Amino acid sequence: MSTYSLSDGLASGAPRLSRTPLLANWVRESGIGVLASIAWIAFGLSCLWWEDVGDWSRTHSLGIAAFVIAAIALFGTVGADYLGSAGQALRKRAPWLVALGAFLTVWEVATAKFAWLPLPFFPPPQSIIEVYTDDLPKLLDSVFASVKLQLGGYLIGATVGFLTGVSIGWSRAVGYWVHPVLRFIGPLPATAWLPIAFFTFPSSWSASTFLIALATGFPVTVLTWSGVASVSNAYYDVARTLGAKPSFLVLKVAIPAALPHVFVGLFMGLGSSFAVLVVAEMIGVKAGLGWYLQWAQGWAAYANMYAALIVMSLLCSGAITLLFAIRDRLLVWQKGTVKW
Amino acid sequence: MVTAALAEAATHPAAGAALDIEQVSHAFDIDGAELPVLSDVSISVEPGEFVALLGPSGCGKSTLLRLVAGLDKPKAGRLREDDSRITRPHASRVVVFQDPTLFPWRSVWDNVALGLEAQGILNSQRHRVDAALDLVGLASFRNAYPHQLSGGMAQRVALARALVNDPKILILDEPLGKLDSLTRITMQAELVSLWQRKGFTTLLVTHDAEEALVLANRVIVFSDRPARVKADIRVDRPYPRHRGDPYLANLRRQILGLLGLDATW
Ligand SMILES: Nc1ncnc2c1ncn2[C@@H]1O[C@H](COP(=O)(O)OP(=O)(O)OP(=O)(O)O)[C@@H](O)[C@H]1O
Ligand SMILES: [Mg+2]
């Protein structure tokens, strides 16, 4: 009896709490969207209000684009309830839109309008946009060359590293011969091989592929190996009593159990191979984003440098995102994996 | 009913195999010192017999099971299945380990399918996996991963993973230890009916004298480490057995006495 009256009291008390003022509710949900819109209008105005101190052709278009983004931010967040998941996604990112709009406004004013920052070294936003519109073919060629080189080297390095790691982890004989070589050569930064690689290999292309593969292969090998070596014997016991042959033990027990370690190796390899890629392109290969950076610096084309840097960071981040997606796919069985 | 499905699924019903443990002794090296674990153990098990092994914790029961499975070699003595010497693991002797040791990267269904897959016969025998999952009552968890299971559920999956292989000798290391008492009694009944239907030889390690008496033809009691056979008790009662059976209660008192508990129990 007493429990019934208690829960009755709670039930009748509950609705009164949820009656919040409508205005406050609206401000909480859409206020940041309005702020974002204001920030981007400010950016658009900062483009159009004053005269540029230099000679840039995209100032006007950039100002218009800023107003368009401001409009999208406003209607997208205020009307989020009618836009489904896209609206919700936009609402979630509204604080970032505010920050970005404010940052661009300050950047615009500090460079193009009043030149508070020394000019050739700190180009305004519109000059970077100009690079993307006017120097697009060369930039795209560079992106293509970089991706091709990186992908080839990384895939070779990851495959060789994985196979080597599994063999060392599995076979004592292979471990006996490979382990000392690995210890001797592995820790050497791949870039140290650069001078040798460039005159022993037939082309700078093959030399760079080798270096990227080397930079990838070492961490992948070591982590695959440690992954295979740390697989609990209990798993092998279970599989063996169920009639598993050695090939089954390697393919269906050792490798899946080691996979989380392998992915750590793949991430580390990706990081170090990016470094090798850029250096190799700057020094030997006359193509790719690294080379583009070098070339831009030679001509004091600072806007091109920033433009290339932004593209490069998008590509690297994209590669990491892709690897995370593959990992999440393969390791769904793990609980509590890191979100990238 | 599900048991029947599982029995039907077996295309070649395997009868049990005889198991001979002949003067087996075993020891481990711990920091250079030798730790004797089994001392001159001889047990002869008839085909299709259900033998329960009881003994104090740490006396060497799991060690003996590993030798029977062929995972380790004894320091002295011999083990034989029918007339062939046990030197390595074989799918005719399946073990349910004390720890379920499910493969965390495989779903429940794939874990149960492990033995059939390892023997390369999974594609024609998929229904046996489903039947085994039905048997342990986990058909609705077929797509779950081991980290999503409770301890008792994991143990039931491990049991299904063993049963699906149609072993000649089923080796059970406290397989029902983590189950709640109700599921435990159900699983005991299922185990007995499965064993009667299929006729495999069973070796069951348990801490529970009552469980041993309800299930087994023979109860073997071990001494403290190093384990020696202290008593070999025949349990001549028909199945299904009654927990309250005075004959069993009498045997139980006797066994607890052998394990060092006085008669007040
Ligand atoms: N791999 C090993 N290396 C060294 N010593 C071991 C090893 N395995 C078991 N032992 C020792 O052998 C003894 C018997 O172990 P075992 O696991 O067979 O006991 P048990 O009878 O199964 O005990 P419980 O009922 O608690 O499971 C223990 O003292 C243990 O320390
Ligand atoms: Mg044990």
Describe the structure.
The complex is a heterodimer of chains A (340) and B (265). With 340 residues, chain A is mostly helical. Chain A is built from 13 helices and no strands. Chain A is 80% helix and 0% strand. By secondary structure, chain B is of the alpha/beta class. Chain B contains 9 helices and 10 strands. A 6-stranded mixed β-sheet of chain B has the order 6-7-8-3-9-10, with helices on both faces. Chain B has a 4-stranded antiparallel β-sheet with strand order 2-1-4-5, covered by helices on one side. Chains A and B meet through helix 10 and helix 11 of A and strand 6 and helix 4 of B. Bound molecules: adenosine-5'-triphosphate (ATP) and magnesium ion.
Would you spell out the secondary-structure blueprint of this structure?
The complex is a heterodimer of chains A (340) and B (265).
Chain A: H1 2-17, H2 22-49, H3 59-78, H4 84-113, H5 125-134, H6 136-170, H7 172-185, H8 194-200, H9 204-229, H10 233-241, H11 246-283, H12 288-298, H13 302-330
Chain B: H1 2-9, E1 19-30, E2 33-45, E3 50-54, H2 61-69, E4 76-81, E5 84-85, E6 93-96, H3 108-112, H4 114-118, H5 126-135, H6 151-163, E7 169-173, H7 181-198, E8 201-205, H8 209-215, E9 218-222, E10 229-234, H9 246-258
Parallel strand pairs in B: 3-8, 3-9, 6-7, 7-8
Antiparallel strand pairs in B: 1-2, 1-4, 4-5, 9-10
Helix pairs in contact in B: 1-5, 5-6, 8-9
The complex binds adenosine-5'-triphosphate and magnesium ion.
Residues 61-62, 98, 173 of chain B line the site of magnesium ion.
